[in-house]
Amino acid sequence: MTLSPWSRHRMRRMLRRRLYRFEVRLPSKVPGIGFTARITATVITNPPYPERTDDLAAAIRATLRKAAFDVSRKCDPADLATARDTCGRHLASRRSLATEPPVEYEAVLTLDLLPDDQAAVRSLLAAQRRQAVSDLLRRQTTEAMAEELTHPAALLVRWIEQQPDDWKNLPSPETLRKITEAFSQYRPEAERTVEYAALEVIREFLDSFQDPPQRRMVYEVLAAGMRHAQRPDHAAKAEVLVNGNPGPSAPENGS
């Protein structure tokens, strides 16, 4: 069908009017919070068109609404700028209706949040901040307590605090050792390094010598190894430990 220039112009104008800033309600990835959008489509194919103007406009609007719906439901309403970029870029791609011949079009989108959705986002962010602070404090408390309870004396103090009037039922040294060993196996992610593992091995090694003369000998060997490695400061500190733990067999002053 041959159309006059005036008829072509009239058909384009009618189609443009039906595709200008039509509204659509779009979901976000947060249930109950959605976007409001206005879409303007531009038909690139010149008339005549294979369908009536109203039918063609309805088909284009439906296609664009679905395309916007598919991408917006993955967007975070708290990050409106990124949602605008993502949805705008997705709708800007050229599309075509499955007509004969095909009708090509493209679109631009403006995205926003209604006042109620803005208030919901603020409430959501406030709740997330409160939860984050609560999680952090709980994690810090757990890590501090786990580190504290790796020491038998600290564990015993905790035990007495829970049962201040029952000193007859104190845990045995073996029970304390098992509990503190269980806690010593815990390490925060930042402390799971070779250095910390080496400290645990050294600590277990020293704890395996319960007899004071044996432990004194181990510290002497440790100090000698530090001197051989040209670490005199560390050797001096190890010798202080040796002198501070002479063991029950050492003679007392004046005896």
Structural class: alpha+beta
Low-confidence stretches: 246-255
Number of helices: 9
| Fraction in beta strands | 5-15%
Order of strands side by side in the largest beta sheet?
1-2-4-3
Terminal-residue CA separation: 127 Å
Number of DSSP-assigned strands? 4
Task: Give the SSE order as H and E letters.
Answer: HEEHHEEHHHHHH
Report the major sheet.
Answer: 4 strands, antiparallel
* Average pLDDT for all residues: 85
Helix content: 55-70%
Overall shape: elongated
Rg over C-alpha atoms, rounded to the nearest angstrom: 38 Å
SSE arrangement:
Elements (H helix, E strand, L loop, with lengths): L4 H14 L3 E6 L6 E10 L9 H20 L7 H13 L2 E3 L5 E10 L2 H34 L3 H11 L10 H12 L9 H14 L4 H17 L3 H13 L11
Antiparallel strand pairs: 1-2, 2-4, 3-4
Helix pairs in contact: 1-2, 2-3, 8-9
